[in-house]
């Protein structure tokens, strides 16, 4: 029996040379244009190629302060202004609690008037009409 031990001293000589992925998650993520499919910056408001407006441009809501305010003022206890902006869940909650006994509705009214009320997409409602 040849019992020569394997010299495995140098086996532990591998340099952990991991390919260092410098994944600096780029702020400028590329998205494909929903008009022409071209790669454009995610922050672009419109495609430089075809001019198609991009989702980032849709930061403006189509909801308005005035109708929201009127709904909140007259029907705030029923959460109708929340239904208006698309916040159905909290609208129902408000309806069931009678606008948080009026307090919640009142707070909403103030937030609406100062232009900080948001729609269901989290976009601030800043325009009056
Ligand atoms: Zn395009």
UniProtKB/TrEMBL annotation:
Keyword terms: Glycoprotein, Membrane, Signal, Transmembrane, Transmembrane helix
Domain TM2: 62-110
Cellular compartments annotated: Membrane
InterPro entries attached to this UniProt entry: TM2, TM2D1-3-like
CC per GO annotation: membrane
Membrane topology: Multi-pass membrane protein
Residue stretches spanning the membrane: 65-85, 91-117
Predominant subcellular localization, coarse grouping: membrane
PANTHER family registered for this protein in UniProt: BETA-AMYLOID BINDING PROTEIN-RELATED, TM2 DOMAIN-CONTAINING PROTEIN 3
Protein name according to UniProt: TM2 domain-containing membrane protein YozV
Taxonomic lineage: Bacteria, Pseudomonadati, Pseudomonadota, Betaproteobacteria, Chitinivorax
